[in-house]
Design a protein that fits this description.
Length: 133
């Protein structure tokens, strides 16, 4: 099965290029960064979405992690199970998976790409992701 997903490209002075797409996390539509170097099954979201998803931060595993750049500062991490993640057309799906929510994350979400499909092509000129499952 082949399908396409929209690709959003951020080019920072031709020094750094980042890519992203829109996904549906349970009931929320979020813009997420796609990180091919994140490893497998890495799903990180801004903690501001926890309430909308019905996640009670007092009932899940949490951990404060100091910054490696400024050890006197850091972020609170929340670890929990999420029911569903799909692309907007529901061609790619991940269900009942572990996700991390982070206070102060500068993205709505950032994640690995292995859940999308087996063969993934980033078509930069046409701003699309071509996926073979």
């Amino acid at each position: 099965m082949k399908f396409e997903m929209p690709l959003e490209i951020n080019n920072d002075r031709n020094v750094k290029v980042s890519i992203g797409t829109m996904v549906k996390l349970d009931s929320l539509e979020l813009h997420v960064g796609l990180d091919s170097g994140a490893g497998f099954d890495v799903f990180r979201f801004n903690s501001r979405y926890m309430e909308a998803l019905g996640i009670d931060s007092t009932q899940i595993e949490t951990k404060y992690i100091p910054s490696s750049f400024k050890p006197e500062e850091g972020n609170q991490y929340y670890f929990t199970e999420v029911t569903s993640l799909t692309d907007l057309k529901k061609n790619a799906e991940n269900t009942d998976f572990r996700a991390t929510f982070i206070d102060g994350l500068i993205h709505e979400g950032i994640m690995s790409i292995n859940w999308i499909g087996e063969i993934i092509t980033f078509d930069m000129p046409d701003k699309r992701i071509i996926v073979t499952k």
